[in-house]
Amino acid sequence: MTTSFIPDHNHPFFFFFFSNVKTTKHAFELLNRQINKLITQKPLIANKIDNNILKEIHLLTKLAIPVYTAYTEAIFLKLIYTPNGFTKQEIDQIFTTQKKQSIVEAWKKAIEISARKSIGKKSGFYPNSIKKINTLIKIHFQEPSELRNKIAHGQWNSTFNKHNTSLTPDTSTKINNITIVEISKWIATFNILGDLFFLVNQSPLKGYANQYWNKITDIEILLNSQAQWSFDEKVKKMHIKKSRSPKNPLTS
């Protein structure tokens, strides 16, 4: 009988990776707070933020993309080294997939290994659940990871193909138009996806399907509730709230 590589919560690996999750999450929160301060630093002009302040917000938002992916990768490692989870051989498979393909494919491999144990391949639920999770991983990890790579290679405004021989206008547009609201949506969804990963990895077959669909429903409800939430709406509401504050520097 194979045993998990991390037998309990006292193992130092679990502690170290858990610490990384807390630190990267805190880094994003700091950036988010700074952006919030900038949003209400000056009164709106024709319902728009001062242009110089907006430039600062755009820079901090671009910094938030690699912080987001650092957070998700920290969660990934914490989940891989969760007690009573993967064996050493399974962990090797996951990291081999990451090395040969990508972090996105490593996520899929980890889910596949976990699902085989918690669902069982004979179940018709297995392919359907895997397909659903893989779609969520692609949406909420693959694109942010690609944007992070461009920023990491100095492509903050204009992006190029992997050979740096031609521009990639669509990716440039994404990087220049991304807002902290969209990244916050990624994080909120990804946190539920992390819970789903943990559920697949830790749960026995009995009762798993209901728990799984509850998490999928949570994600769909979250996405629907946030569909109309935009950066402009955030700015508007923050200024309304600020104007109602007893100590309002915007009206002093």
Short recap of the structure:
This protein is mainly α.
Describe the structure.
This protein is an all-alpha fold and 252 residues long. Helix content is 71%, strand content 0%.
Main sheet overview: none
Q: Could you name the ranges where pLDDT drops below 50 across 5 or more consecutive residues?
A: none
- Counting DSSP E segments of at least 2 residues, the number of strands comes to 0
The multimeric state of the shown protein is single chain
Level of helix content? over 70%
Mean pLDDT: 85
Report the order of strands and helices: HHHHHHHHH
Distance between the termini: 71 Å
How many helices does DSSP assign? 9
The fraction of residues assigned to DSSP E strands is under 5%
- Estimated radius of gyration: 21 Å
Q: What spatial form do the alpha-carbon principal axes imply? A: globular
What structural category do the secondary elements indicate?
Answer: mainly alpha
Q: Which descriptors would you attach to this protein?
A:
9 helices, 71% helix, 252 residues, mainly alpha, single chain
Architecture blueprint of SSEs:
Layout: H1 12-39, H2 51-80, H3 88-100, H4 103-118, H5 125-152, H6 169-177, H7 180-202, H8 208-226, H9 231-243
